[in-house]
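ugh finaly. both done.
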Amino acid sequence: MKKAWMGAMTLVFLLACFSGARAADKDCLVMGLIPTEDPKAMIEQIQPLKAHLEKELGQCIKVFTASDYTGVIEAMRAKKLDFAWFGPFSYVLAHERSGAEAFAVGVMAKGDSTYRSILVATPETAQKLGISTPLEGEEGMKAIAQKVNNHKKELTLSFTDPASTSGHNVPRYFMIKAGLDPEQVFKKVGYSGTHDAAELMIKNKTVDLAADNDMTYPGMVEKGKISPRENVIIWKSTPIPGSPVAYRQDLPDKTKDGLKKAIVTVPAEANKVKGFGNITKWRLVSDGDYAMIKDIKKVIDGLKK
């Protein structure tokens, strides 16, 4: 009942926020951003990409983000967003609930479109678990499960957002595969809201372990906000499909084709949203590219039955 009430209130709030804006800017498209980092910073960083798309489309674009991932998904379901930059898991949710259709993904400087989920620990926790080099994949998580079980109800864990791919669903999926039930093993399990907040919680030793990704982490190290000595990576997932930009399936074909043509011409210097990685260019994708994430969602959904 509480969850349903919160969802209804979120939708009412979004409708109120957008009704005036869309009435005043009928010719503008509205782009959503999931809050992987500080929302204000993300909106500032998206401006060069936004300006390029506006120039190519010959149409103005408004940018919206919410306090959580669900707010962006609900805004699209209410048809208050035309397209949005999701994480892989939030995209799958938006595809199911809001008719989202992936059409583009960023290509990193290293030449691929994938990234990894990571678990980060305080130095004291890494030492307690006896991990000095990051463990990887399913076997790595099995080793962590055994080590954490030796310290049952001693450690605290923070995910980011329930709809986050790297900050929740991928690490939880690997925990399930490893036979690790976070709520039963950890002293406390919570959510930080954003990836940068999770890293700061580790730095400040508010929690013992936190989930993040290998895009946010190096960016924060580069800015001097954290250091590998304070925030120790103890686990890395296998590669995850990149975060897609998706439009509503019911948009006019002309608009969808225009977005596809415009985004693949975005210059490298316009890609400044570091929460989505060091993107140099864009390539087109489709819903089928996210089959792996849909399989992970099935496993996660199975926990709720």
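ok and the 2nd:
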Amino acid sequence: MFTGLIEATGRVASFHRRGEAGLLAVETTLPTADIAIGDSVAVNGTCLTVTAKSDRTLTFDVSPESISRTLIGKLCSGSTVNLERALRLGDRLGGHIVSGHVDCAGRLIRSEERSGNLQLQFTLPSEHARYLVEKGSVTIDGISLTVNAVSQEGFSVNIIPHTYSNTTLEQLRVGDSVNIETDIIGKYVERLTSPWKSGGTLSMKTLAENGFI
């Protein structure tokens, strides 16, 4: 579990494909001595497991599922990535609840400077747009952000100067794609209510019978 507050950016040292899987090595300023083999680290919002490390490098096995559902497979040597270690019990939850399980790729279609801030507009598949709400949370390449506005085709966010200069957003250009993780709460609500979607009726009685109230 993560918060979406980026701890550092790293540089891809190498990415090697192994059939449908891959091996990713990232150079980082994170304290690798405090990171154990088997720990989880979010790389551009994708939860990956550390399988090897050195003083300045973390290495991750990348599963076929991660490659098919995220943009990790498009990384190359020299790419900059956002990094966040997993949340520890007792830490402040300064962002929002982030699972590190990317839902889809979005694309930046508009970037506009406004009063020292940056307004970014993204598209994403319509089947994922339903999990976004105005003033709710969204994760873009691992960064926890507040949704300014949302439609069936996409959404917009505001980027403050600190976030812009301390993440990979500084390198983002119109037309670029990003990893998107929508709010996990919305997905659970949909799953819990889905038995009543096909012709049934969701009532106070059915909620009580199934332990919701």
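summary for the 2nd one i guess: The radius of gyration is 19 Å.
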